[in-house]
Design brief:
Elements: H1 2-16, E1 18-20, H2 27-30, E2 38-48, E3 54-56, E4 61-66, H3 69-79, E5 84-86, E6 92-94, H4 97-105, E7 108-111, E8 117-123, E9 126-141, E10 146-161, E11 164-174
Parallel strand pairs: 1-6, 2-11
Antiparallel strand pairs: 2-3, 2-8, 4-7, 4-9, 5-10, 9-10
């Protein structure tokens, strides 16, 4: 019974964590992502559960986001100084609707392959955030009960793409509720 009460409290508290983004999205600051260049990012993504199990990011969407004042504000409020956060503990963001639409328009996505590998090609030089949301099932086993819970988290890395060449990156997160 204490377990269920604690779980309910944790979910309630995480659902109440609400933050407002103060920055407005500036398309001129992000315009470099729409241009064609010769840079490339190769990477892989995975999640490590609290129990140490490695879950590859197979089939997960990987997001490439130009580093702008709006993106820095967003990532600072989501991750609070960490490179990953358990999804249920991430805050709910409130943003100007126009900024949110523009932010999404200036974001590129790819899907990680069966090993969690991904590639972004034809990039112009600049600083980017790479973000991945991991979703997986975690089994909780008690003496007379087994429960499958859907879990996950969000992880990111910041990279700088040079005028030519390839940047390699690992985007990984860790932790789980239980």
């Amino acid at each position: 019974m204490k377990f269920l009460w604690a779980l309910g409290l944790a979910l309630f508290v995480s659902a109440c964590h609400h933050v407002v983004l103060k920055e407005k999205f500036n398309p001129q600051e992000a315009a470099y992502i729409l241009k064609t260049g010769t840079g490339r990012i190769e990477g892989e993504t995975f999640w490590r559960t609290r129990k140490g199990r490695i879950i590859k990011g197979a089939g997960e969407r990987v997001y490439l986001i130009p580093e702008t004042a709006y993106a820095r504000d967003r990532f600072a409020k989501i991750f609070r100084g960490q490179s990953s956060v358990i999804a249920s503990q991430a805050p709910t963001l409130e943003s100007d609707p126009t900024s949110e639409k523009l932010y999404n328009r200036y974001t590129r996505t790819v899907v990680a392959d069966s090993r969690g590998h991904f590639v972004f090609e034809r990039l112009t030089p600049g600083s980017y955030f790479i973000a991945v949301t991991h979703e997986f099932d975690e089994d909780l086993k008690f003496k007379f009960l087994s429960i499958a819970l859907s879990e996950g988290g969000i992880a990111y890395e910041r990279v700088t793409v040079p005028p030519r060449g390839t940047v390699r990156v690992i985007v990984s997160g860790k932790g789980s509720l239980f």
